[in-house]
Amino acid sequence: METTKNHFFSDMSVMLGRSMRHITRSMDTIITVCLTPIAMMLLFVYVFGGAIKVGTDNYVNYLLPGILLIAIATGISYTAYRLFMDMQRGIFERFNSMPIARSAALWGHVLTSLVANAISVAVIILVALVMGFRSTAGILSWLAVAGILALFTLALTWIAVIAGLSAKSVDGASAFSYPIIFLPFISSAFVPTESMPPVVRAFAENQPVTAIVDALRALLSGQQVGTNLWIALAWCVGIMLVAYIFAMRVYKKRV
User: Fold this and answer.
1) How many Cβ atoms sit within 10 Å of the Cβ of residue 98?
2) d(CA 73, CA 50)
3) What is the pTM of this model?
4) What confidence tens digit (pLDDT) does each residue in 210-252 have?
5) Which residues in 187-200 are b (16+ Cβ under 10 Å) and which e?
6) Which residues does 137 contact at the CB level (< 8 Å), separation at least 6?
7) What CA–CA distance (Å, rounded) separates 5 from 136?
8) Residues 6+ away with beta carbon under 8 Å from 167
């Protein structure tokens, strides 16, 4: 027990390295996570962008925050898949028989999700710059954007942990992400909510993605964020805490 406590961070770094090697060796994962949102961004900007009225001539500036959230939602499905495969292969049981921290393997998956999604977000922003994205945000605003995206990633990752540990099949482990990927389409990510029918608009304006997208868009454009920032943070932190509590309960029960 003493060894486990003293070497938690070193154990976790080893598990992080293990999970990251799985990412780098699986090119289809990298391609899917990066290229699908990029293809969607290209489609909306160059095919649909001319017909969508958002009050700005540069549609990619309006669109980018929603694309980033879709990329993260796509990426965390692989976290659930990798956790499910480790459960099926008895990897957690093997690790628990060794003198390492009990939760180190789990945290390795969580941090891998954070790093992998950060890389995907960076790649997508670079592509958006080529497509004409421009930002007047200062350093503090960019740090705030990074913080919100990190919190959003962690919130969805802990949901992925629940799915990965509880699923009975590979399809079940990754299918949970589909509703999350769909949420940005019923939000202000692609069009202003004012253009939606009343019932759809009411849902769009009161779901977490709209507040997060609006906060990111205001920060990137150098505008006043207002209450959207605090609403976005409240959604991210709230979801993360609830998901973390349930994920740890499932982890203790299953492992």
Assistant:
1) 10
2) 27
3) 0.88
4) 999 999 999 998 888 888 899 999 999 999 999 999 999 998 8
5) bbbbbebeebeeee
6) 145, 219, 220, 221, 222
7) 46
8) 80, 84, 173
Query: What is the number of structural domains in the chain?
Result: 1
Query: Tokens representing 25?
Result: 């060796």
Quote the tokens at residue 81.
């898949």
Share of the chain above pLDDT 70, in %: 95
Supply angle C-alpha 123, 126, 132, rounded to 5. Answer: 145
Q: DSSP state, 90?
A: T
Tokens read off for 79? 């976290």
Separation CA 174–CA 143 (nearest Å): 30
User: What are the tokens at 235?
Assistant: 């959604």
The one-character DSSP state at 44 is: I
Residue entry with tokens 């913080």: 147
pLDDT in tens, 152-204: 999 999 999 999 888 888 877 778 788 888 899 999 999 888 889 999 999 99
CA-nearest of 97, 204, 207, 211 to 148 is 211
pLDDT at 245: 94
Contact 46, 194 (CB under 8 A): no
Question: In whole angstroms, what is the distance from residue 190 CA to residue 63 CA?
Answer: 6
- Which residue range(s) make up the domain with 117? 2-254
Cα separation values, 114 from 125, 149, 170, 202, 247, Å: 16, 10, 22, 31, 17
Cα separation, 28 vs 18, in Å, equals 18
Integer Cα distance of 33 and 156 in angstroms: 15
95 and 3 Cβ atoms separated by less than 8 Å: no
